């Protein structure tokens, strides 16, 4: 079966900046360089387009500096969009813009339950048939269980115990059914055991590359696009038969994000079993 064209949603960084501090990477004093961010964002978009990805654009909005991180919009499952419930009010203001985009593009927009938090594809990633779900810092385990019941899929919640790796996509990256990257120190012993038991090929990413958000990678078939400056990760990917494409994304690291956070797969991740 020929693979359909991958579709990814991105939002240009016209209004990107560090205007508040909601994770340990963000420092208003340090700030961000918008011109540099713009060049890096375009580098990522061009790398994805070069892989045959159809990149769709969400219009940027003044006053929403983190709207660039489309991974947190919600969860896309077929033609349903489950809109996130952001933990922080500064990001909850993004939801109406995400919802309007999805409604205008043929998706059925659904809300997650009240009084629970869920930060979308930042915290919930399919590896094969199983939805791996990070909780504690941003998303609640109860919200993950609601999603799993709603979609009728198996969900394995893992606690995120290291504040620097506050979304699951900062420390876990499915590459294919049964294959994933992970940063072991982002999880407790139980979480590591869950991953080890359910993902037969688990590729560890050591701290230096994990702190450069090497796990926050975009997977397109057998190609992995990730932040530059992760040489050990690049070698591990190639040893497992993947092509590594490094792109510089340091400006976004200042906000606690990188390649994966800047994207939202609209047609299902390649590693997700339900897609096939
Ligand atoms: N500054 C954003 C926040 O703290 C970064 C989001 C990164 N996104 C991700 N999927 N990890 O919410």
Report on the architecture of this protein.
It contains 8 helices and 15 strands. It has 276 residues and is α/β, with parallel strands linked by helices. The chain has one domain (7-275): L-arginine/glycine Amidinotransferase, Chain A (5-stranded Propeller). The strands form 5 sheets. It has a 3-stranded mixed sheet, covered by helices on one side. A 3-stranded mixed sheet has the order 3-4-5, with helices on one face. The radius of gyration is 17 Å and the shape is globular. The termini are close together. The relative contact order is 0.18. The mean pLDDT is 97. The structure holds arginine. Residues 22-23, 26, 66, 69, 71-72, 91, 122, 167, 169-170, 255-257, 261 line the site of arginine.
How would you summarize this macromolecular structure in one to three sentences?
The chain has helices at about 35-50, 90, 95-105, 140-150, 190-200, 205-210, 230-240, 250-255; strands at about 5-10, 55, 75, 80-85, 110, 125, 130-135, 155-160, 170-175, 180, 200-205, 220, 225, 245, 265. It is an alpha/beta fold. The strands form five sheets. The chain has a three-stranded mixed sheet with strand order 2-1-15, covered by helices on one side. A three-stranded mixed sheet has the order 3-4-5, covered by helices on one side.
């Amino acid at each position: 079966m020929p693979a359909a064209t991958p579709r990814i949603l991105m939002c240009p960084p016209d209004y990107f900046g560090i205007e508040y501090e909601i994770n340990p990477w963000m420092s208003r004093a340090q700030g961000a360089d918008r011109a540099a961010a713009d060049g890096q964002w375009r580098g990522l978009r061009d790398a994805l387009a070069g892989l045959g990805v159809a990149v769709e654009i969400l219009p940027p909005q003044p006053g929403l500096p983190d709207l660039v991180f489309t991974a947190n919009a919600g969860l896309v499952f077929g033609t349903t969009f489950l809109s996130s419930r952001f933990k922080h009010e500064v990001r909850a203001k993004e939801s109406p813009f995400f919802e309007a985009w999805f409604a205008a593009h043929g998706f059925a927009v659904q809300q997650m339950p009240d009084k629970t938090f869920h930060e979308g594809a930042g915290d919930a990633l399919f590896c094969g048939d199983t939805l791996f779900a990070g909780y504690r810092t941003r998303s609640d385990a109860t919200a993950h269980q609601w999603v799993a019941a709603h979609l009728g899929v198996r969900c394995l919640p893992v606690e995120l115990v290291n504040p620097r790796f506050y979304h699951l996509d900062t420390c876990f990256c499915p590459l294919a059914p049964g294959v994933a990257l992970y940063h072991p120190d982002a999880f407790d012993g139980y979480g590591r055991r869950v991953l080890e038991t359910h993902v037969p090929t688990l590729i560890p990413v050591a701290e230096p590359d994990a702190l450069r958000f090497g796990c926050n990678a975009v997977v397109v078939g057998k190609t992995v696009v990730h932040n530059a400056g992760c040489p050990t990760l690049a070698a591990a990917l190639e040893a497992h038969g993947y092509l590594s494409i490094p792109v510089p994304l340091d400006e976004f690291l200042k906000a606690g994000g990188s390649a994966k956070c800047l994207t939202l797969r609209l047609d299902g991740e390649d590693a997700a079993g339900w897609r096939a």
